[in-house]
Each structure stands twice: as C-alpha cells, then as structure tokens.
Amino acid sequence: MIARLLAGAALAALAVGSAQAQQGKISGDVVKIGVLNDRSGLYADLGGEGSVVAVRMAVEEVGGKILGKPIEVIAADHQNKPDIGSNLSREWIDRDGVDVIVDVPNSGVALAVQEVTREKKTIFLMQGPATSRLTGDACSPTGFHWAYDTRALAVGTGQAIVKEGGKSWFFLTADYAFGHQLETDTAAQVKKAGGTVVGAVRAPLNTADFSSFLLQAQSSGAQVIGLANAGGDTITSIKQASEFGLTQSGQQKLAGLLIFLSDVHALGLQVAQDLVLTTGFYWDMDDEKRAWSEKYKAKTGKMPTMVQAGSYSSVKHYLKAIEAAGTDDGPTVAAKMKEMPVNDMFAKNGKILPNGRMVHDMYLARVKKPSESKGPWDYYEIIRTIPGDEAFATMAESGCKLPG
Amino acid sequence: MSTIFGIPPQALFGQLLLGLINGSFYALLSLGLAVIFGMLNVINFAHGALYMLGAFVAWLLLTTAGIGYWWALLLAPLVVGAFGVVLEKTLLSRLYKLDHLYGLLLTFGLALIVEGAFRHFYGVSGQPYPIPDLLRGGQNLGFMFLPNYRGWVVVASLVVCLATWYAIERTKLGAYLRAATENPVLVQAFGINVPLMITATYGFGVALAGVAGVLAAPIYQVSPLMGSNLIIVVFAVVVIGGMGSILGAVLTGYGLGLLEGLTKVFYPEASNIVVFVIMAVVLLIKPAGLFGRER
Question: Which residues form the Leucine-binding protein domain (chain A) (predicted)?
C-alpha cells in the first residue's frame, strides 16, 4: 500500500516536473493571438470576422492550449488606416502582451505594422495584404507572407491572358501602395510575355462610381483592362464594366488581378462569369479542403476566402513551431517556422523562404457560367496549377536584404 | 485627332454625360435635404441611411417576394416615407424647440444605427440588383456607349426634381407649407393642421431619398455603406447651393456632378475632393451659399 502511494507520488512529481520544464518559456503564461483587420469597410467580407473564426478553429484543433498554457484570441479593426494599425499593434505588443499579429489586409497598413513587429521582434502572419514589398525591400525576420502576393497574381493572371492573345493592357488601379505594386508587378509580367502596356488610370480607394475611369479604359483601345484593385472596388468596377458594355462588344477583356470568392458571391455569376483569376485556395478542390471549409461554413454561413483559410493555416503552423521550439520567443519561433515544411489542408509541401515568403502552389481559375454552377459557392473551375516556385519570387529576386 | 485642352472630344463629352448622371443623384438627394431643412429646420443626417434603406427595400422586395423594379420604384419610397413618418412622430418632433444641433445629432445617431444593423446582417460587399429587362443594353452615341438605364436615371430624376419644385413654389399646398415655416401660429389660426403638414413634409423628403435609393440599386451594389459614401458629398452640395434653397439644391447637384466629371478627365486623383474645394471657396465668398438667403 505504502509502496503504491510512494510510486504514485513519484509519478505525480514526475508529471509536474516535466510539465514545468515545458511551460517555462511562454511569455506572460499565455499565447496571445491578435487578429488585426478591416472589420467594417470594403475588405471586411474577404477577411474580417471570418479570419477570426478561422484562427479560432486552428486554436480549437490544438485543444486551446500549447505547452500547457492557454491560447487567447483577440481582434480589432484597423479601419484601413496605417496610423491606427501601427498604434494598435504597438499597444497590443507593449501593453497586452500579444505574441503574434494575424491578417492585416490593406498593404498600406501592413507595411506600417511590419515596421512595428520588426522592431519588437514579434511574429507577423500576413494574409490580407498583397504587396510583394512585404517580403522584398520591406521584409522582416519575423514577418511571414502566407496566402498570396502581387507577384503571384501577376504571374498567374497576367501571363495567362497574354498567352491567350490579350497583348495590349490598360490598368485601372487603386491609388495606394497595393494598387501601385500590383500594377507594377503585372506590367512586368505582361512585358515579359510579349505584351504592351498602353496606359493606366488611378482611382481613389473606395470609389462608388467607376464609370468615368472605365470610359477612359475603353477609349484607350487596349485589348485587356487590368483591374489592380480589390474587394468592394473590384466588385463595383466589374459590375459597371458590364453595364457599359465593355466586355460584351468582344473588343475588350477584363482581367481581375485580385478576386476573392466573396467578391464573386457578391457579384453573382451572371456578371462575374468567365473572369480569369489567380487564387491561393479554393474550397472545392479536394476532400481535406472541402471538409475544413464545410466546418467553417457551419460557423459563418459562408465559404472561406483564401485570406480566411490562410489565417487558419499560418496560425496552425505558428503553434506547431512553438511546440517544436518549446518557447514563444519571436525570433526563435520564426527560425523554427522556416525550418518546418507547411503541410495542412491549405498547402501541401509549402516552404518558407528566409524573407518570410511561404511558397506554395497557386491556381489559375475561371469563374463558371450560371448554367455550369451547381449552386451557391460552386463558382470556380481550376484551369491550371501554378507551381509555387514559378508563382513567387526567389529570395534573390525579392530584393530582401536579410541573410539568405 | 483634334482635341479640346489636350483631351479627345469623345472622352470629354463622355465624362460630362457621366457627370450629369451622378449629378442626378446629388440633385435628388440634396433636394430631399433642402425640403426637410427648409420646412422643418432639421439637418437630416439620416438621409444617406434612408437612401440605402430605399435600395435595400427594393432588393428585399425582389429577393423575398419577387416584386420587380417598377413596383419597387413605387413601394420602396412609400416604405421609407412611412419609416420617416414614424421617426418624425416619435423622435424628431420632440426636438423642434431646441437648437438645430440636437436634430443633427439625433439623425446622425439614427444613421449609424441603421447602417450598423444592415452591415451586421448583410456584410459590406453588397448584394447584386439586376437592371430591369426593359432598360437593358444601351445606345452608341458615337462618343460613348450610354447604358439605357443611366439615361433613364437622368430623365426620372429631372422629372421628380421639377415636380417637387413646382409643388412647393407654385401650388396652393406649397404656399401653405412655406407660410407655415414663416409663421406656424398664424397659419394654424387659419385652420390648417401644421403638425400634420410638417410630418408629411418629412415623410416626403425621406421618400425622395428612397426614390434615389431604388434608382441607384441597379447601378451600385446594394450595400450598407452606399449611403455614407454619398452623404458627405450631398451635404457639400446643399451647403454650396444654400441651405434650404430648393432651386439651389437641384442646380448645384447637377452642376457639381458635371464639374466632378471634368475633374476626372483632367486630374482624376482630385475627383473626390473637388466638391469640397468648391465648398470652401463658396463659403468664403458667399457664406449663405449660391442660392441661399441670409437669415
């Protein structure tokens, strides 16, 4: 009896001991995940609360705990303003002990948050922002760009359309960091594939009426009108292009350079049909993606965009890296994340470059006609898989000055 | 190719026509604001939200009851107007004795609540609303392709604006209304029900916003944000035209639409601030607005 008691006590002591050994390295005794995105404006549907739900799903899958410490998820709205975004992230890190910042759509805001997280050595998992500068001249040792970027979009949609015969391009560009970069990257790919760029017009962010810009695009005589915008702006410009008969005449073709599933849903297939687009994720590609997406849909009523699915994937990888590293210290976890391949429902054999670029396959898709679609959310036909190494810039091409 | 100020004439005329179309919305919305301010002395900040409500009612009629555009054009303003009457009876009517500022704050708060509620239920990407079959397609004018629907918007808004102006400035009912705003006690003594008239006026002004909302639905996405995107510009229009001046609101609405179109030709980046620059200049030179009178 006594022997049994002693053995039990020894076992218990051992268990406590080993638990303590694991626990020691979590700062503030909690892993705090801060999802910072647009929760009320033109990008709220493509990320917004949906990204928070996706992150919570990743946390639930590991049982809400890591190394014996609880995981907490908080969220805030950056209102698409870089000053608000950088102030919030500074407060989160300094005051609230946030260990990782997730999502941050809007390249302008993301560039500001990247500065803060680099200075504070905090992990930054980017889903929403597009500009390839985040792993280029603005790269950070603790910054990770996950779902897509302007370079991948340009390679996918830009090259594909030039190959189909769309040689001359005119850009309709959102007038801020993201739009400019998407225009620059796409123009480079168009020229590389043998096309020409005849002009561009810059429209203010969140424009309600694109008709005059579309008119300029129309009178340029270009074969392809490249939409270097996103979210609500893309929706409005596509809808109005259809109204003004730009595409029906057959002389001009629209190229949506960044289109999310939520955009197609809002437009309806009647207007969106036959658009060619590049995406990092589509829910209906394999069983694993379908199963996860159905679970997500049960919580939100919608299928996930690549931003939302990517938020899940990056947080899952981040948590795995903490487990493997035995600490939540920013630079240590960042190094661990770069060592480990990314294998989950989002990406197969993804790898992370030293500049933080997560390299994975991208997909060129065509929006189905209403007659081809079997119901809500059955929107894309995948035309081609773009291998990760083709889609994303190499470390040398990126212009990032971190040691490679 | 010959050019005007370095711009091909096609592009110039095209932009002017687009300006006129945008101006139609500015005119229709600022008309409602001017009617409400002129008669009730309320700065109706909820106007943008009520415009959005008009579009949403049209969309809901279509998606839930299968009621199409033409009926919506009649029904949605009635619904919005009725909502306005309720607002006036229950909330606004308590504030008439207080400063303008209270009405402004109340309506601003209402706008936030209505927009917030719709954003919660319908998201921000907006809902598609198809162009009615009768108005599909467009005309090739040589210098541009004019969608039939946009042409219809210009005609419809002109008719509504003219009819409203005529009703207020040229009919007996309008005369009562104008008299009631000058001296309500005296007009009441003549046996005219002034409170009813004020309620009806608010309902009518708000219904105008509903009309604009239905007209806008097939052009823009039916989105909770559509009102707040537009309302600031419309307020600038009303200020430039002169608070409460009906003619001022209508003419300035079309005028600024055209001016915005021109800006988009010559310097697109400035197109969303040009209205405010004009507002600043007008306020410096003529503080009561172009058509306003000093009170």
Answer: 31-368
